[in-house]
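2024-03-11 09:14:02 INFO queue: dequeued item Dihydrolipoyl dehydrogenase, len=485
2024-03-11 09:14:02 INFO validating residues
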Amino acid sequence: MKPALKNKHVDIAIIGTGTSGMGAYREARKYTDSIALIEGGEYGTTCARVGCMPSKLLIAPAELRHNTEKFTDFGLQGEVPKVDGKAVMNRVKFERDRFVGFVNEDVESFDQKHLVKAYASFIDDHQLKLSNGETISADKIIIATGSRPNIPSFFEQAGDRLITNDDVFSWDDLPKSIAVFGAGVIGLELGQALHRLGVKTHLFGVGDAVGPLSDPDVIASALNIFKDEFPFHSNGQVKSIVRTDQGVQITFKPSPDDDEITETFDYLLAATGRKANIDRIDIENTTLALDERGVPLYDPMSMQCGNSHIFIAGDVNGDVPLLHEAADEGRLAGENAARFPNVFKRSRKTVLGVVFSDPQIATVGASFSSLNAKHGCDFAVGSVSFEGQGRSRVMLVNKGLLRVYGDKETGVLLGAEMIGPHNEHLAHLLAWVVQMRMTVSEVLQLPFYHPVIEEGLRTALRDLLFNLGMGSHPPLNCIDCGPGS
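2024-03-11 09:14:37 INFO prediction written
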């Protein structure tokens, strides 16, 4: 790799080589060869190293083992497999390193003269100070510095037994017990997976929140499902955290009206969200307007910060911390930085989020809370419970609730929130039709096979059509009636 030159000047400087930074580089490269792609840490995206992929590698054996517990319900004879924690973690790390290797190969395929191995911070709107003692000035700058785990100071009392999800995927073996704090995406996925792999697990949440859900009925369904499987203190009160010779001693009330309980765990896993790495680049040295979090004000349809030559993309903006969103934002920032001052707005894809718990949680398009907060938006709701859904009952995965939302004036499908079997697939179908601005009536004209879980979606849409005043009442107790019903 060629060393960076002192006081080097480039057309575009990109700070960060995660998903959004790589996307920005590829797009900007179409327009200019004067680029500095700056990275002070390790190459490899958050998704590949400590996010999407390693977590799914832990979830896969957990779900497989859990499903064997249903053998007797199907009339089958068998035993729940014993867990070889070292073997589980060996596969997690091996495959994780493989995914990271693919990312590193991508970076290595970039023009080496563009790569700068150093941390960067702002001197002013156009100049960056590098940790290697050099500086770079740039006509345009893209901030793609990502995020890191957010750790409340209260947890520091756990001492060396305090970990984040970044640490989990470096384990050589599974622990005996763990307390997981945070009932968001990371906490739900890792907490349930570790429980299913035989680790004594308690999940602590706040205010009965469950992942990204905002619909009270779907939240209630999710709480019942998870609490029925493992200790989930969704509104618990933690009184103390103490590092002892045995591990981490936690004294808490499972709910405000319960008596105090004291339990000891091997580790405390802080899954309490992520913090944007905006505080490490001296953003205050720029003239950009910042919000209360210190993040530059920007247009999500162009990724431009104010009217400036600076753009921001990915987890660092704290908007939607998902890989596909980071990739889209990176490409958009790269295109507009290269074209500056001719900055164009691009329509964004329908919001789509999936939590790989079991049952899976998914959100599509407009959320229940956003529709309630939106002035002048009169919407109706349709729902289906998976408890009685035909295909779900056949497979003994009949848990959960799907709620879909439609505009009362136009009949357009607006969004959905759900927890249910294989909802990653339902969520994609819904995201596609929401993005196409289809009405509920139009979606119901699409084919639905029998018997499949997707028929549950049809039931919810029929219910929504009726509640919109645009269709008759759905057939009762038809176990997902066939075509023409």
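2024-03-11 09:14:37 INFO annotate: DSSP finds 13 helices and 22 strands in the chain.
2024-03-11 09:14:38 INFO item closed
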